[in-house]
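Contributing new records

If you add data, match the layout below exactly. Sequence lines come first and carry their own label; structure lines follow with theirs. Keep one chain per record. Anything else will be rejected by the validation script.
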Amino acid sequence: MSVTVTHVWKPSNARLVTVDSFIPVPRGATALAPHPLNWPAKDPGDILDYILDIAPAIVGNDGDGIATLDVSITPSSPGDLTLQSATADGSRIILWLSGGQPDTIYTIGCAVTTVNGRSLQRSVLLPVLLLSVPLVPANALLTAAGVVLTDQNGNPVLSAN
């Protein structure tokens, strides 16, 4: 007897970033910009969920949460990183991202409005790197040392045979 299995989807904490808390600056001191937020690198073939938690921005405001979200991705040319879907769960933004060009660092901008009317804008960096080893076609040209010859785009050069 075949049974269809249902699953409860839960975002992965492996790609969770939390906004910096709001730290008061003493009078007369200059506030320093925090380090950029960033997620771990992804492969162009990955389709993964990425989380941005804004809880520190709304701490102490029970009942406040994300009401609206506007997401931007730069650069944004054909073949670049793509937003598959976006959702919010309380203080967490969950983005499903796919694609991207290798050796490119993308900036994902999130403009949030909360239920209580607060506005927050943050950017998170996402590097895209070739993390998987592509299969080498049987007709790829090799050097004497056994290294695959590639063109200027990193694609293997193939023999006519």
